[in-house]
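Protocol step 4 of 6: structure prediction from sequence.
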Amino acid sequence: MQQLRFLPGKPLPLGASVQNGGVNFSVFTRNGAGVFLEFFENPKDASPFESYRFDPRLNRTGDIWHVFVEGLGPEALYLYRVDGPFRPSEGLRFNVNKYLLDPYAKAMTAESIFLGQEIHRKRTASLDPDLAFSTTYTAEHFPKCIVVDDDAFDWQGDRPLNYPLRLSVLYEAHVKGLSVHRSSGAEHPGTYRGIIEMIPYLKRLGITSLELLPIHEFDEHENDRLNPRTGERLRNYWGYSTVGFFAPKATYAADQNGSGPVREFKEMVRELHKAKIEVILDIVFNHTAEGNERGPTISFRGFDNSIYYMLEDNKRFYRNYSGCGNTFNCNHPVVRTLLLDSLRYWVTEMHVDGFRFDLGSILGRDQRGRMMENPPMLERIAEDPVLRHTKIIAEAWDAGGAYQVGWFPGGRWAEWNDRFRDDVRAFWRGDSGQVKHFATRITGSSDLYLRDGRKPFHSINFITSHDGFTLNDLVSYNGKHNDENGESNRDGGDHNISYNYGFEGPAVNPKIEAIRNRQIKNMLCSMMLSLGTPMLLMGDEIRRTQQGNNNAYCQDGEISWMNYAFADKHADVQRFTREIIAFRRRHPAFLRPEFFTGSETAAHVMPDIVWFGPDGRSPDWSALDHFIAYQLIGSRATILTDCDDNDFYIMYNASQRDITATIAPPLEGKKWFRVIDTSYDSPLDILETGMEEMLQNQQKYVILSRSAVVLISRNV
């Protein structure tokens, strides 16, 4: 048994900090009356081997309670308990009989909070979980916090890569889903090490940045519904229900012992960086897994409920702008410090390159839920010197009705551009009246980002994401098929802008399959050649399907996993994706840091972009439908990127008829060469560098229905 000595300690830094001779513990509670720190030998222990009650005369500075434990070292297991008033109507929910996770814990054991709560509820079924004061407690089924020594890891000189956004190609993936399927061949499937094993695949694809769905510790067992088809209990697969903002999820690690998940996460980041691939984390600061007033007490609720959460006027209840039961009180000064400390930790100690903020608009609400003109949380993140080169990407809306795409405050924020998603989908589906919207999106969404001084790359251009249809399902289903989620197909969105082209679901008709393949390539081409920062969803490059499920948050199985067998079945789409990414990255004309002006300059006779109708003339935007063409003058990229480029002539035909288009002439001394025509079968759909085909007719081009064509100018 460890011999421990308890000394006053220091208030900062918060959390458990390994120091010479022991560990300093520091935690915040303002309204709590007493704090207990307890230590455990094993992850499943019900009782501690040592308990220390803080002396407020020695162990408290302001609202920070602290103690230095001499004789303790890394890998120690600990939990807190906090005494104080239990008056839910006043927002006070202290209960000394509840074990609490340290809000700053850097690692946790893999026990399930919700399975443990389920067992406890069965024992106390007569108690109201909201108003009843629990008088019994056990740590048997409760995760334990783990003391982590961050200095023990050898980074081998690694630092965050921090690519400029305009040079980035994002790939949204799930840690488990990327390698867990047997087809991956991974030795450590579904883990951080499994990600390392997938690096050659990611490198071949050509992406620059891996954006991972939540890896902050969460409990996949919080979902208590059953799959109506299999009878199996559904899980929280996506992970949008955070338990701790500093701890990587333990069950994503091959080594789940002690601080193994922390070490393994760092190894993953280090090896991805060696392969020149960034790591971006999808983080959930808008709510926690504690849910509404009937949810479990895990951490924040027990330390200071009225500070960490937005409460209704009747403080028994929670304001719910997240759609998940509670809303984190992000603009309270104490909470702002917590969240900024978390971001800094992931950048400085875990070396990540950026963050995508789920329901980011909540970070702009005040403590009563009102939208703020200059939210201090958003401004602090944008202006923080440690995070200055870190990518910050907002999902610029929330479940409370806020929608801020193009208006997100804070200066340098990039945004998921759902307007790009919807307008590109509608154009290629063949909806009328979409050409002008489509043209605006593919040229950087100046209507959204120019007015406040932001750049085209602040638009994260995506057509699909984890939330909604995959790209395959977008062209295979007219409606959602979420029956296996156990909610009678009521969940998930109905505004999908999808089309099945004649048959719902997988089709054996070769004509239907050919149209679907072409439409997938059309949308990939539109996204990759648009101004802005493209984001590809995991598996879209091989037509991964979720069988029509557009809300697979609870599907931890074949529906959500990456099945690499599709790479053989849809090798042509995979090749096209790989080649179009490489094409984008080779040509500065598609990586411009500034919007097009469409005007001439003294140094350049031609403007940087010229629009055309099918007749080769300047289009009548009010009459144009289903077709648009434009010429990019790549030499204008010289001014912006210090790198000359070719000129391009790009035509998009979303109609159901072939069009004989008149082509604008290239600059003097040059000829047009075909590089992309999605109506061709692979490998002629996109030609590799040096293999482009010079057009025999330099004035006319027959662009088939539902096709994209890209011409490049070359000297002959």
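Step 5 (inspection) to follow. The chain has a mean pLDDT of 95.
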